[in-house]
Design a protein that fits this description.
Layout (H helix, E strand, L loop, with lengths): L1 E4 L10 H13 L6 E4 L9 H9 L2 E8 L5 E8 L5 E5 L1 H4 L17 H12 L4 E5 L10 H6 L3 E3 L19 E3 L11 E6 L11 H5 L7 H22 L15 H7 L3 E4 H9 L1 H5 L4 E4 L3 E2 L8 H11 L3 E6 L1 E2 L12 E4 L7 H6 L1 H18 L4
Parallel strand pairs: 1-2, 1-11, 5-6, 6-9, 9-10, 11-13, 12-14, 13-15
Antiparallel strand pairs: 3-4, 4-5, 7-8
Helix pairs in contact: 1-13, 2-9
InterPro entries: Glyc_kinase_flavodox-like_fold, Glycerate_kinase, Glycerate_kinase_RE-like, Glycerate_kinase_sf
GO biological process, one term: organic acid phosphorylation
Organism: Chengkuizengella marina
Amino acid sequence: MKIVIVPDSYKGSLSAFDVGNTIKEGLASSMKGVEFEVIPMADGGEGTLDTLISATNGKLKSVEVTGAMGKTITTCYGILGDDKTVVIEIAKIVGLPMVSTDQRNPMLATTAGIGEIMLHVMSLGFRHFIIGLGGSATNDGGIGMLTALGVTFLNHKGERVVESNASSLQEIHEADFSTLDSRLKECEIKIASDVENPLCGDYGATAVFGPQKGATKQQVKVLDVALSKYASLIELHLHDSFQNKPGAGAAGGLGFALLTLEGQMFSGAKICIDTTGLREKLKDADLVITGEGQSDYQTLYGKVPIQIAKLAKAYQVDTILISGALGEGYEKLHEFFNSCHSIAPGPMTLEHAMKYTKPNLFEKARNIGQLLNLGFIK
C-alpha cells in the first residue's frame, strides 16, 4: 500500500513539512508494510518558498530589504534547481505575522522590499520569477514595489510623491512607467495566488482583508477610494485595465501591481503541484491524505486540500482530509473527500489547540491508521 501525504501548513502551528511528517509518523505507528511519501504543499502564501525549493533541490539566499513597516530586515528568497528561476514569498518579507498586533497599520505598510529583491536578483542576471502572494501586512496596491522598481508617481504640483505606502495614494495625480527599470521587459513573472478578489469594491483587497491587517472601518473606506483612483491613473497611463482581473486584490493589491508589469496570474496550489511532480506520484498511490489549519466552506474556493482532492479523483485515488479544525460549511467537503477529520480530541481554547497541535495530529493519524487496517475507513 502506498499513501501519499500532501498537506498545507497549519498556519501559526506547524509547517507543511512538519504536518506531513507527523501524519506519517502517526500512521506508521499503527500500520505495517506501508510505503509513505510526504510532499509538503502550499498555495502561494506561507510555505510556498520551502515547497518549491525542496521539490527542485534549490537553494535559499539571504538578503536585506525594507520590511512591511519601513525598517530594514534580513530575509531570504530562493533559486530553483533550474538555476534560473527566483522564488519570492512575500509572507517572508511583508508578512502579517512579522508585524506585532499593536504595530499593524495598513496606511503605513509598504511593499518596497518586494521591488528591492527584484532589483537585487536582476542585477545577478535572473529574469524568471515566481512570486507567492498571501499573508501580507500591506494594503498599498503595490505602490511600494512599483516605486522601488522605478515607476514615478507625481502629485498635482508635478512633484514626486515621497512616501511609497498607502498613505500617499490619495496624493497621486499622475503615474509614469517610462522610468521603470528596463530589465523588467526581459522578465517572466508568474504570480502565485490563492484568491481571485478584484482590487476594489465589496470583494476587494481592502474590504475583505483590510480589517485583519489593522484597518479601521474609516480606513477601509478611505483606502478603497484611494486604491480605485490610483489604479485608474495607472490604467490611463498604460492604456489597459487590471483592477478587476481575478487576483488583482491579492496581498493588498500587490497582485494588481504585478499584473501591470505583465505578470501572469496562476493558482498558487497549481504551481506547487506542477513543480513537485505530484501527478506522476499519484499514478501508483492507493490513498492520499491532505489537510490545512482549518477547513470550511472557503476550502472549496481553490485552497490546497480541494486542489489535491480533485487531482486525486482524476487518478481514481481516495482522499482523506485531516485538518486542525473543521469550520462552518465543512459538510460540503464530503463530496470531495472520503472522510474529513479534525485533530481536536475535545473542546479546547485556540491557544491550547495550537500548543498541542503536533501530539493531537499524531494521535489522530494513529487512530486513522488503525481504522485503515480494519478497512473501516478509506
